[in-house]
């Protein structure tokens, strides 16, 4: 019989899949898209078959060990998408497949070392390993040993095993993928007739009661529920199992934290603008993308829901992508209210098992609508017909790790391959989406709010001239103070945004001016209270607040740049009767925490909600009549070409939270640069004006959308080595571009704006050119860059970056 071979991609940064032999017993399961267990060095890993019947490798191929699933985990269209993404982003195929499947569906074996004894002295690392195992009761994993000894241990493990000092136990990877189960009782065989039931159960009333309860439920009943309903103990049930009347089995019990009662959907009559928008989207050709450009409160969500309803009626599936923080009970609730039995939610707050359950329900076709953040773009929705990307301008749609994909672009790739359509929704669209939609004449407008409610007036508060409330480092003006008081007196709610968490941005010595910096990153430590500490927001390094300056010994300090903790204290002192909630990364670290905060706001249990950019989106509360932007300048002058765009979007979005109900609303924006074009256009609710102005500013020097970018970052612990490698990389890039004749400009190398993060120095290069030219260069250069990257010095490649920090 001819031997057959398959390519298997592993969730590792490998340049190409490995080739394995397909055992005859697995021939029907080792198919493209299937999960398989394969040996990798001393371990066993779960991988994905990418191709079968490939050529035999030059070296002897190892066997595929198992194929745990009856069907392929990934359908053909997602395998095709993975291949296209790998080529587009210059990423290993295994890394792309890793983000396509829930984490619970991957796995690898672990190794447990057992201390047996020693016959001869060993010394060195081997001796330290034996001492470590003894301290752990004689047993520990190799991973724990490597963490403790801070070095690889496999070479000494082999030696110690050969002399009989240790044994190695291998635990196989878990192929069940965190499946939850529950015990179920089922009737066995053919149902008993009345006569048979009387003969076999007539003298055992409890067994008869159990049998009747099972029969009334169609022959199956959850074990715990059956015992609770009948009031019977385990003993009669066990006797029935021994008699062959019932079987007790473990079945999969999908976990859905969003299940439960939903508010019934109320019939909503579409406005004339919504009707026109819906008709325009219905006419969108398959595989194409349209931009639904509507002001805040214009009813974009209702248009999404109607379009989803049409897709489902046509037998197609749908997905709705939202920024992670916008995945609130409001968002999910509205979708589930209209489609209660069709929604699977994929969310970072879910456990690995919960996400795996939702993914399986979509893969089996039990649910037809996927809702989630960027990774939901890979949801295995059957017969996909519609992809909605709400708030498409959000930077959270860009993945920050390999593969550095953008969900908006991947959605377009997927739609083209599956003949679906893409709807991008935003009140403040990105320049890239605006340019593409304008060129294709696919902008669908919702120009006014539902009910013709006016956009809230925005007042610019010039911090250079306004009176400040004394006794605080916060830019808190009398004008904003009075507005909050008036809102409280009227019984309404306020939103206050300050896009900086913690108490103060940094602590500075008043004698010599030295700030306390992170020892691992090129950034100052942020002051936090409760508990009091200095903390790095990049590597999470923490330290107590020093009593004296490490440079000059000075004992007096000043606090620079106030954060949300200080704002919360100020609000509590100035408005002691107000019910206040804070929403930032420090208060939303636990599961569902920000959902609970927003639920309190919706129930009217919070008078003032303050926070970072988290409160700028995904919030629709009609009783919010005041929005205050405490300091609009926090992101305006970052060393990034998108700084003005992000500031405009943030201010415009948070301003749109006001005035959504019949009471109307107002917005106060505090700034030291009220004349800046980003703030002027945000105050005027003029997105098109901003897009035109910002687009012109990016023509010279050229930045997206007028040119595409590739961002290369070289990082490592040795500063001199990183700079040397970056210089060599720049020379190599120049040579390859020159040989290819492609119209690409190489800029750099130069230290990154944040030069050191997590003890690694960073130097970056930027390649500019047409997207097609950069794509050709990436396909030719990606393998060389991957081979040149290792733990000591890494080279990361980011196509179409959203940040150059």
Average predicted confidence as pLDDT: 89
Helix content: 25-40%
* Weakly predicted, low-confidence segments: none
- Strand order in space, largest sheet: 13-14-12-15-16-11-17
Helix count? 23
Q: Structural class of the helix and strand makeup?
A: alpha/beta
Largest β-sheet summary: 7 strands, parallel
β-strand percent reads 15-25%
Give an overview of the whole structure.
The chain is α/β, with parallel strands linked by helices and 805 residues long. Helices cover 32% and strands 22% of the residues. The chain contains 23 helices and 32 strands. Strands 13-14-12-15-16-11-17 form a seven-stranded parallel β-sheet, with helices on both faces. Strands 18-28-27-19-26-25 form a six-stranded parallel β-sheet, with helices on both faces. A hairpin with an 8-residue loop joins strand 1 and strand 2. Helix 1 crosses helix 14, helix 19 packs parallel to helix 20 and helix 19 packs antiparallel against helix 21. The mean pLDDT is 89.
Chart the SSEs and their pairings.
Layout: E1 5-9, E2 18-21, E3 35-40, E4 43-52, H1 76-89, H2 93-100, E5 110-115, H3 124-135, E6 139-141, H4 142-149, H5 154-162, E7 166-171, E8 181-187, H6 194-201, H7 205-216, E9 220-222, H8 223-230, H9 234-242, E10 246-252, H10 272-282, E11 289-294, H11 300-313, E12 317-321, H12 329-338, E13 343-345, H13 352-363, E14 369-372, E15 384-390, H14 407-418, E16 421-426, H15 431-440, E17 443-446, E18 458-462, H16 478-489, E19 493-497, E20 504-509, E21 526-528, E22 533-535, E23 542-543, E24 557-562, H17 564-574, E25 580-583, H18 593-602, E26 608-611, E27 624-629, H19 643-655, E28 666-671, H20 677-683, H21 687-697, E29 708-716, H22 719-740, E30 745-757, E31 760-769, H23 771-788, E32 793-799
Parallel strand pairs: 11-16, 11-17, 12-14, 12-15, 13-14, 15-16, 18-28, 19-26, 19-27, 25-26, 27-28
Antiparallel strand pairs: 1-2, 1-4, 3-4, 5-6, 5-7, 8-9, 8-10, 20-24, 21-22, 22-23, 29-31, 29-32, 30-31
Helix pairs in contact: 1-2, 1-14, 10-11, 19-20, 19-21, 20-21
